[in-house]
Sequence to fold (174 residues):
Amino acid sequence: MSFKTVLVLSIILGVMACKTNQKNLENVESVSESTTICPEDGNCTFEIFNNSSLEIKKDGIDALYPEVKEGDHKVLKFEYKRTQDPRIADDGYREVIYLEISSNTKNLHLEDQDLKQAKVFFGRLCFCGDQAGYFPVEKGRLKVSTNKDKTVSYSLDFEISKVPQKIKSFSITK
Fold:
């Protein structure tokens, strides 16, 4: 194969890859209205992945991790990122909550073991040994409610017994 052929194929593959990412970005909504109090030492974000599904997978050492894929549900992601000190190596710290609900959910109330229905998972991502990873949320309360004006409120209060956590709840209105 000539250099020109390899170059042209590389450009075509690059353009196709960009096109795929653009389609996925169209299905993501970032929500800035929040009644959640984010810790002062970081930033919090909330995203809704429409037409998606949440798959919980295991890696090579049987650790759980979530993967958002195309599907017919909504995946909600709340994330807290602590501000890093650039002078400290491996100072990164994040907490992430993922959950999946039906696309047409107007009102929902799940507690404790029923949270499995929504695949509620908490991630503690840091350089903190065996106190990092993704864990199913088994104790808490998830509420989704739609008001007459079509605004939707999402709230989750939860506890994880396996690892320390900074975020114990979030409440978002969209």
Summary: Residues 61 and 133 are 12 Å apart (CA to CA).
